[in-house]
Amino acid sequence: xxxxxxxxxxxxxxxxxxxxxxxxxxxxxxxxxxxxxxxxxxxxxxxxxxxxxxxxxxxxxxxxxxxxxxxxxxxxxxxxxxxxxxxxxxxxxxxxxxxxxxxxxxxxxxxxxxxxxxxxxxxxxxxxxxxxxxxxxxxxxxxxxxxxxxxxxxxxxxxxxxxxxxxxxxxxxxxxxxxxxxxxxxxxxxxxxxxxxxxxxxxxxxxxxxxxxxxxxxxxxxxxxxxxxxxxxxxxxxxxxxxxxxxxxxxxxxxxxxxxxxxxx
Length: 265
What we know:
By secondary structure, the chain is α/β, with parallel strands linked by helices. It has a single domain (10-264), classed as Vaccinia Virus protein VP39 (Rossmann fold), CATH 3.40.50.150. It contains 10 helices and 7 strands. It has a 7-stranded mixed β-sheet. Strand 2 (60-65), helix 4 and strand 3 form a beta-alpha-beta unit. Helix 1 (10-17) runs antiparallel to helix 8 and helix 8 (202-217) runs antiparallel to helix 10 (233-248). The protein starts with 9 loop residues before the first helix and ends with a strand. The model is unreliable at 1-9 (pLDDT under 50). This is Methyltransferase domain-containing protein. GO terms for molecular function: methyltransferase activity.
């Protein structure tokens, strides 16, 4: 069951659309070969998926999302870039619509934290991965910022409480290798690493902080937080104002640590 705390509104897709293989899956890049068949689960607007397709010119990439909302835009983006070795479709990570051992790489990015049973999901990813293939996952593990900011602190509090309240697992990057072991991967076959994002330049602050401000004003996160009792309208205004202060502060810095795993089948 998906327990996503937001939706696919423009502000959400803005942050997701920035993601590429190089800035969000560089740990996987050395293992991608030109003829591979890759499954990207939780593809959203397709930016990572499309970038993967560019790295497998004689292979194919399938992007899967649990709802159809972002898929037309993903298809349009692929077409606009002349990418034809790619397919987008709906699918549930807990019951993938594929046969056993179909893919060389099965990849998720910031997905396991938004579902109720990540071990079952990893087991299903393992099922559709070829013998000798790779199951790859990257999930946030922690974040920090400067200077102190009451609005961002409130955002972190609300998102974590809301995520747990809906059955998710906020910021699980430090333990995704444990989930993989419970899903049947041998510990010796799991490569563990960490990566990070940093948003500090004026352009980076405008991109990250601006989109987060907009999420607090109009997105599924904002509506759900109020409707389900996780935050008040005043809380959301505090959050939005906090992100605006971060954008405008030349000393502003925001960093996010991610846990990464490469699981060999």
